[in-house]
Automatic annotation (TrEMBL):
Gene symbol of the encoding locus: LOC107804778
Protein name according to UniProt: Protein FAR1-RELATED SEQUENCE
Keyword Zinc-finger set for record: yes
Domain of life according to the entry: Eukaryota
Residue span(s) of domain MULE transposase: 1-80
A single GO cellular-component term on record: nucleus
Location in or out of the cell: Nucleus
Molecular functions per Gene Ontology: zinc ion binding
Biological processes per GO annotation: regulation of DNA-templated transcription
Organism lineage string: Eukaryota, Viridiplantae, Streptophyta, Embryophyta, Tracheophyta
Keyword Iron: no
């Protein structure tokens, strides 16, 4: 049976496993069931964005179950199909290279649109349905349309494929389901220990920078590096260096990359997996219930919203002190 994995990235740029599912079928209903079950395990918190292979069944399921999640196709999955759908085109190697360059190097939507029109005409691809379908879904895979969203540097499902290779060290094709569950826990524990090790290294050693920069104002650049990765690009840093600004404003040091943020999940381990979670997580969920309830009651009434904000700020301050 195919094993579908949910893989994310932590603040050390390590791959983290957010869940997996065995699927006997890969139709729309099966994917909807998988996504709904996964969301339940995630406390019904929908991801801001998700990258998958280019399958219509997955697209339909995500649109229904996670309508506000930005869905991106794995660009490597699309590129891997070029030899098949450019068959008969000569010279094929040059055609594949031009296609990749057109997609990856277009810095504005206008440039991409022009290059696409020229490419289709040059190789006479007007009647090839695969290219017509790709163009109709361009906002799901072409970087210039998607770089306005944050992807933490991820463009493809390669991290998910890497996670499959990681499991090769724990399970084989002969492993039973019972053995898989046991080995799965060992694999998760190993991943967890690597994250703790990276956390220790980031806090236990001083990082020496080659250059120091200071800045107060962010100028939007055409490369969209900060928007899509959450890290300032070298264009900005070059300007800051030229202006002799040696400090970066706090607004542009995102929480997801900081090492001084409290991450309670690092102290919790789901010993037997969902739904039989560790006691700490159950306690966390019970507290979250009341936070959600307060938000639901206050929503729509400005006075109540301000009351919730005020009391939560006071509570956080009291807990931290």
């Amino acid at each position: 049976m195919p094993c579908a994995t949910f893989v994310g990235i932590n603040h050390h740029r390590q791959s983290i496993l957010l869940g997996c599912a065995f699927m006997s079928h890969e139709d729309i209903d099966s994917y909807k069931l998988v996504f709904r079950t996964w969301l339940e395990a995630m406390g019904n918190v929908h991801p801001d964005a998700i990258i998958t292979d280019q399958y219509q069944s997955i697209k339909v399921a995500i649109a229904e179950v996670m309508p506000n999640t930005i869905h991106r196709y794995c660009i490597c999955h699309i590129f891997s199909k070029l030899p098949l759908y450019l068959s008969g085109v000569r010279p094929s190697k040059i055609a594949r290279g031009e296609f990749k360059s057109m997609v990856l190097d277009s810095i504005t939507i206008e440039v991409f649109e022009r290059k696409w029109t020229e490419y289709i005409a040059r190789y006479n691809l007007h009647t090839r349905n695969w290219f017509n379908k790709l163009y109709s879904e361009k906002e799901n895979w072409v970087p210039v349309y998607l770089d306005v969203y944050s992807w933490a540097g991820m463009l493809s499902t390669q991290r998910s494929e890497g996670m499959h290779m990681f499991f090769d060290g724990y399970i084989t094709h002969q492993s039973t389901l019972r053995i898989f569950v046991h080995q799965y826990e060992l694999a998760i524990r190993a991943k967890h220990e690597k994250e703790l090790e990276a956390e220790y290294r980031s806090k236990g050693f001083q990082i020496v920078c080659e250059s120091r920069f200071k800045w107060e104002e962010y100028t939007r650049t055409i490369c969209k590096w900060f928007e899509s990765r959450g890290i300032l690009c070298y264009h900005i840093l070059k300007i800051l260096s030229h202006k002799k600004i040696d400090k970066i404003d706090e607004r542009y040091i995102l929480t997801r990359w900081r090492s001084d943020v409290i991450r309670p999940h690092l102290n919790r381990f789901h010993q037997v997996g969902y739904p039989n979670m560790a006691p700490e997580y159950k306690t966390y969920k019970s507290m979250l219930k009341y936070f959600d309830m307060a938000c639901d009651i206050a929503l729509g009434t400005s006075v109540k919203v301000q009351c919730v904000k005020h009391n939560l700020k006071k509570m956080v301050h009291d807990l931290q002190n």
